[in-house]
Amino acid sequence: MTANAALVTGASSGIGLEIVKTLLAMGHPVYGLARDFSKTDFVHERFWPIPCDITRIDELRRALAMIRDQGHKIHILVNNAGVGFFGPHEQLRPEQIVQMVLTNLAAPLILTQMTLRQIKETQGVIINLSSITAKKSSTHGCAYAATKAGLTHFGVSLFDEIRKTGASIITIHPDLTATPFYEHLDFRPGDHPETHLTPESVAEAVRFALSQPAGTVVTDITLRPQKNQIVRKPQ
Question: Where are the beta strands (DSSP E) in 82-226?
Fold first, then answer.
C-alpha cells in the first residue's frame, strides 16, 4: 500500500530543517533534499535525507525515484531552498544571477511539475517559501526579488489552476530571518529578538496553514519582525 509523505527542499539547516521537525511532529513521514547533510546531526525514524542538487533535473528524478521505491507518494511539497546575492545589479556576476534563477525559481517550478500528479491525487499541499522582497521594491536585491516575485505569482496562478482538484498552494513571505542564509552576505539581521524572525516562527506558520478546517486555504502568509534593523558586516 502506498503511503503519503512530505518532501522539503533545503532541509539540512535553517527554515527547512525546522519545517521538517514540524511536519514530523504533525505525524508526516518526511523526505529532505539538500546538497550536503554532513553538518546536520538531526535524525528521526520517519525522516530520510537525500543528498540532491535541486538545480539538476537528473538528480531530482533520481530522488523522486528513491521516494517512489520506498512506497511513498508526495502529499506535501515544501519548496524552501533558496540562495541570494545582493548589491547593485551591475556588480552581480552573471553566474550569481543564474544560480538564483535556477535555485529560487526554476527548481520549484520543475519539482512541482514532477510531483503535481501525486499532489492532486492525494489532495495535497504545495508550500512555497518566497520572501518579503517579492512584495516591495528591493534596491540592491533586484534579481533576488525578481526570482521570489516569480515564485509568488506561480503559486497564485497554480492554485487557481488546480483548486478544483482539492489540492492547495500556500506561499509564505518571511522577512529577515536568523539563518545561515546571510553567511556569505555583507549584511545580517539585527541581534535583538524583535529585529528578526526565527526558523521556528516560520515553521509555526506552516503548522498554522496546514491546520485549517477542511475547505479553508490560507494562500498567503507574510511574516515580519516587530522592528526593522539590518546590520552591515565589517569589510
Answer: 125-129, 168-174, 187-189, 220-223
Q: Rounded CA gap, 84 and 141, in Å?
A: 8
CA 155 to chain centre: 12
Confidence (pTM): 0.94
pLDDT the model gives residue 232:
79
Do the beta carbons of residue 122 and residue 73 sit within 8 Å? yes
148: nearest Cα among 168, 176, 173, 182: 173
Q: Name the grid cell of 173.
A: 513571505
The contacts of residue 174 (CB under 8 Å, 6+ apart) are 15, 129, 131, 132, 197, 202, 223
Domain ranges across the chain: 3-232
Sole residue written with cell 479553508: 216
Of 35, 36, 31, the C-alpha closest to 19 is 31
Q: CATH 3.40.50.720: does it fit domain 3-232? A: yes
Q: What is the pLDDT of residues 108-158, one digit of tens each?
A: 999 999 999 999 999 999 999 999 999 999 988 999 999 999 999 999 999
pLDDT above 80 (res 186): no
First to last CA, the chain: 57
Q: Is the pLDDT of residue 188 over 80?
A: no
